[in-house]
Every structure is written in C-alpha cells, then in structure tokens.
Amino acid sequence: MSIADRLRAEIEARRDDLVALTQDLIRTPTLNPPGANYREICDYLDRRLRASGFATELVRATGAPGDSDRYPRWNIVARKSGARAGPCVHFNSHIDVVEAGYGWTVDPFGGLLREGRIYGRGACDMKGGLAASIVAAEAFIAVLPDFAGAIEISGTADEESGGFGGVAYLAERGWFDPARVQHVIIPEPLNKDRICLGHRGVWWAEIETKGEIAHGSMPFLGDCAVRHMGAVIAEMEARLFPALAQKRTEMPVVPEGARQSTLNINSIHGGAPEPPEDDTGLPSPCVPDRCRMVIDRRFLIEEDIAEVEAEIRELLETLREGRPGFDYDIREMHRVLPTMTRRDAPVVGAVARAVRAVFDREAEYVVSPGTYDQKHIDRIGRLKNCIAYGPGILDLAHKPDEWVGVEDMMQSATVMSLALHDLLTEGTRP
C-alpha cells in the first residue's frame, strides 16, 4: 500500500473522532464579543494535543485590545518535532465565533449531527477546519513518525474582531518568524477544492458630522447633523459608489461581485441615544448636533491606500466648500493592505498536488473578499508562504443554521495530510 493510501485509510479510521472533536469545539461557546471561554477551549486543545505527543504553550495576549481579567485573550500553540531537521508546517485556526443571532432551527451550540452535517455556530467558520487539521496531523504522525521537520497547530483569539489578541500578538513576538515557521495553512472555509491565496484590503473610518442643538419645534434655530450626514450619503450615492463599481481587479476574488472595489456603511448613530428596551417614554425634542457613521471600504491590490483615503476626504471637503454649515471630523479605525501569495510558493504547490490527488481535478485559486489572519502573518511575521485552505462553504459563515459537512472535513483532512507528506519528507510526494 502506498503512503498516500495509508494516509487515506488512517484518516478514514478517524472519522468518528473527527466528528466528536468538531462537536466538542462547537459546544464551547467562544463568543466574540466579548471573548468568552477562550481559556476553556485552549485547555481542551491542550489536553488533546499533549495526548498526541505535542509540546504545548498557552499564551495570553496581555494588553491586547479586548484583553481583560474577565475576558483574557488566550491562545494555544502546539509543536510536534520530527525525527530529523526540516521545515515547519503550521496550521493556524481561530477559536472565536460571532454571536449566534436569530433564525436558528437547531441549538447553535449543540453540535447536532444530522444527515452528514454538523450544525452550530463556528461549525464551518472555523472549528471544522481546526478539527480537520488536528486529525490530519495526528494521522500523518501515525503513518510517518520519522518525518523531517516539525508540525505546529495553533488556536488563536479574536480573528473575528481583527486578530490583534491572537495572530497579531503572536507574530509580534516571533511565533511566525520565517526562521522558525516555513509554511502556514489557515483552514478557513473557502471550499475543499479551493486554495485561497490572500485577500482584499480594508480601510475602516468613522465620519462625524457636526451641527447645533436646538428645540425640535424650532429646527431653524439649530443645525441638524443627521441632515449633514444625509448629504454625505447622497454624495456617495451620486459619485463614489459608481466610481468604485468601475474599479476591477485581476485578483481571483470570490464571489464575482467582490472583484470590484466596495464600500459598506457599517453603522449610523445620530441624535438621542437608543433608550433601554423596557423604556416606555418618549424622546426629548432636540435637533441632533452630532452624527457618526462607520464605513468599511474594501480595496484591491491595484489600488493605493493613500488614494482610498483621499477619495473619502475629497468628498467631505467638497461638501464643506459647497454646503452651508457643513463641518466634519474623520478618524481612521483600521487598515489592512491586500495580500496575495504567489502561485509558485511551496505551500501552494503542495496543497494543489494534494487537491489533485483527492479530487482528480485541478485546484481553483481564489482570493477572499474579506480579510483573515494571513494579514498579520504577512505584514508582521514577514512570512509570505501562507494560504487559506479548509472545509466548509464560506457563504454559511455567520448565518443561522451554520454547518460543516463531515465528508468535506474528511476530504480536507486527507488533503492536509498529503500536503504534510509533500512538505516534510525531503521533497518526496504522494
């Protein structure tokens, strides 16, 4: 029996274990915000990986955004060294999940197995990918215990809110230095036969329009900041949105609609604050003197970040010059540059060969519409040999009744194990 067949058989023998592991991970509700149960899931992974022969380390991102004694930002990094020197392959998965939201027909933290699918918040994004990478690594070690190099598995915090308490914190401290890690696979749910090379850029900003408070029965004595914000939106509709629709990229971004530049109005707040749900009173009649809007601008590798920012500032300056009483402030909240790993990078080739072996077809190369933790591995860690590959359908992420297919996880785990064989056996391939 060939090594490839032995790896396939070893993973098939672990099917029930993969299901149980995924269910256990889902049943630990690592909600972000606020950042709940991070230590609990890290302790669970610690027990599991130490039992498989990994050396583990729990790392708290002390002082990172969101870290507190009530909600500490815990991460786990586990390492299994081979019989001789060689490169390190690192599987990185985030442990946090978004809120469940409304519309579920099953328990979002029950880990229900039904008709070949495991349901729950984080099932595809990305606890199914984390479980698949663990089983892939354990199966590979069982079949080839004398491999060269090292395998690392990490579970990291806060990817859903920027990753600053997780991968960014670790990268700043050298965990992803190219001298200690050479290949990174992030099992995000981009479909089992796709290799995700990178992501678009993002620029978040808060715009505040200014006015003057007055009695609501005499609005002419004040200046309504919400109306000024309405003018901002009207200018965006008339000028900016059509211009962004004309900007196209050669990046293989999916879905098709994301191959252009986009802008999302994330939130608007103006006037009196929202009352508590149990408040039955009426609001006071005031002209709002402040209105704030958060914008989420996604941009392409062909665009320059300075131009992205200038587009918004020029729009606001045009309004200041032409609209009576208009004034504003703008504050940058977050920026991430686009990134895209080369198709001839070693980790890309290894996973592509494994996809071909499992599915008997060529891998599809894609780029994510949104960012994920590759941004920190690239920018802070200076490690370019990084991709996302994992089970699950991206469209299901953050949705009610999120699920991951058992067979998809099995096949992805097989791909991961074959990629390990490719990268950690001195150049031989399955």
UniProtKB/TrEMBL annotation:
InterPro entries: ArgE/DapE, Bact_exopeptidase_dim_dom, Peptidase_M20, Peptidase_M20_dimer, Peptidase_M20A. Its cofactor is Co(2+); Zn(2+). Gene3D superfamilies: 3.30.70.360, Zn peptidases (3.40.630.10). Keywords: Cobalt, Hydrolase, Metal-binding, Zinc. Residues 198-318 form the Peptidase M20 dimerisation domain. SUPFAM superfamilies: Bacterial exopeptidase dimerisation domain, Zn-dependent exopeptidases. The keyword Glycosyltransferase does not apply. NCBIfam families: DapE-ArgE, PRK13013.1. Belongs to the peptidase M20A family. This is Succinyl-diaminopimelate desuccinylase. It comes from Roseovarius litoreus. The lineage of its organism: Bacteria, Pseudomonadati, Pseudomonadota, Alphaproteobacteria, Rhodobacterales.
